[in-house]
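User: Structure please.
Assistant: Input sequence and predicted structure:
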Amino acid sequence: MTTSVVSIVYVNDAPAAARFYGDLLNMSPSFETSGYITFDLGPGADLALWSGQFEDLSPDVPRTSEVCLAIDSGPDELHAIFKQWQAKGVTILHEPHDAGFGLTFLAADPDGNRIRVAPQG
């Protein structure tokens, strides 16, 4: 039986990506090597940043998946996170809007990987 689900995000520079995600998530990595860094997101969930799997990742390459940060409070928190990320200079791909499942917005990390903030389902 699976004890943890690890979402892997491919990046050009794992330590740089870890600084970016650590700042957004307000947490420190739980495991680090030069090319593979993880964050413990809670029981059974980890986020991994892995470099060296692809050459020269670019934000111009279309992405078909997202890391979704599910929040358990309402629109006020989502708007606050949106404003914090804007102030940090995070690339915003789609401003807060109602997507049918609630208020959400979409951002990107420096490698072009998509990050969604949405209500916890």
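The radius of gyration is 14 Å.
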